[in-house]
Design goal:
By secondary structure, this protein is an alpha+beta fold. The chain contains five helices and 13 strands. It has helices at 3-14, 21-48, 53-61, 84-92, 96-111, and strands at residues 80-82, 122-124, 126-135, 145-153, 158-170, 186-189, 200-207, 213-219, 223-228, 233-237, 255-256, 273-274, 289-291. The strands form four sheets. Strands 3, 4, 5, 6, 7, 8 and 13 form a seven-stranded mixed sheet that branches. Strands 1-2 form a two-stranded parallel ribbon. The chain has a two-stranded antiparallel ribbon with strand order 9-10. The radius of gyration is 29 Å and the shape is elongated. The termini are far apart.
């Protein structure tokens, strides 16, 4: 073997071996950092957005959800109270995207017991004529209790059809069929006629059509409600122990009986249609109204 070949052979043997250990070590560290970052961001998102169905279910399984609170008059969250027309004007101009974002925030505040002091609840007051009512089921957002769909009334007892509400009364046990409002009853919610306030908070706003908004409201004080004063039927509302956030809002459908006249409209016996504003408003809150007779069923 020549001297030159021997020199090349020795040089080759002297070169250190590289197995890429540093490369894989770097990759492993990067993956761990990425996983830690994702876990941190995921945890923040889950805990700060419990209104999302997946997050709510996850927190519920982990027993990390605070129970929805039954407030009293001293602890009820501070917020502004709106009559139907003012509430309509508040949300009428919002785009569908803005309504969706607002609904997420409204539900979040309700689920977290309004701990964010910067987000005040929207309370509703007024008189509303019941269109139809039914017991709540496991397929609803609130799984036990009763829900009544009603149209707003003006001071002169005329229907203000630009505002429709769902009045939700959650209970601990299932409501019986007779424990519900009847079509034509009047809901008197935190009006000046009442001494005891229930602080009915808006948790969802849906645009039914160009002129009509549907507001889902829940009383924060709960307690006893008179369903039928003449028969002495009451329903005791209580904070829901569980919410089915995969269920749709609004809870009730859009069926509506004939315009109420003498004797009242009854969706069960008269042709049903879709609730629309009468002679749509030229400006927010300027809807047509329909005179109706007065029979009162109040919350207690």
């Amino acid at each position: 073997m020549s001297r030159a070949n021997t020199k090349d052979h020795n040089s080759t043997q002297a070169m250190p071996k590289t197995d890429g250990g540093m490369f894989w070590w770097t990759i492993g560290i990067s993956v761990l950092i990425g996983m830690a970052t994702f876990s941190w961001i995921f945890s923040i998102f889950v805990f700060t957005h419990p209104e999302t169905p997946f997050n709510y279910s996850f927190l519920e399984k982990m027993n990390r959800l605070e129970e929805i609170r039954q407030f009293d008059e001293k602890s009820v969250p501070a917020g502004r109270t709106y009559n139907p027309k003012d509430l309509y004007q508040k949300f009428y101009t919002l785009s569908d995207r803005n309504l969706k974002d607002n609904n997420a925030l409204l539900r979040r505040n309700y689920i977290t017991n309004y701990k964010n002091k910067d987000e005040k609840p929207f309370y509703l007051s007024g008189r509303f004529r019941v269109v139809h009512a039914r017991p709540l089921t496991k397929g609803d957002v609130f799984t036990t209790g009763m829900v009544a769909r009603a149209v707003a009334m003006t001071d002169d007892e005329r229907e203000y059809r630009n505002v429709v509400i769902e009045y939700v009364l959650p209970t601990i046990v299932d409501a019986k069929p007779e424990q519900q409002f009847s079509a034509g009853d009047l809901l008197d919610i935190d009006s000046r006629r009442k001494k005891r306030r229930l602080y009915s908070s808006v948790i969802n706003v849906e645009r039914l059509n160009e002129d009509v908004l549907v507001f889902t409201v829940v009383p924060l004080l709960y307690g006893e409600h008179t369903v039928d004063a003449t028969k002495g039927i009451t329903l005791t509302a209580a904070p829901p122990a569980h919410l089915n956030l995969r269920a749709p809002l609004p809870i009730t459908d859009n069926s509506f009986g004939a315009i109420a006249g003498p004797g009242g409209g009854n969706p069960d016996t008269e042709p049903a249609g879709v609730l629309t504003a009468l002679g749509g408003p030229t400006a927010p809150g300027k809807a047509g109204t329909v005179p109706v007779p007065s029979t009162v069923a109040t919350t207690k």
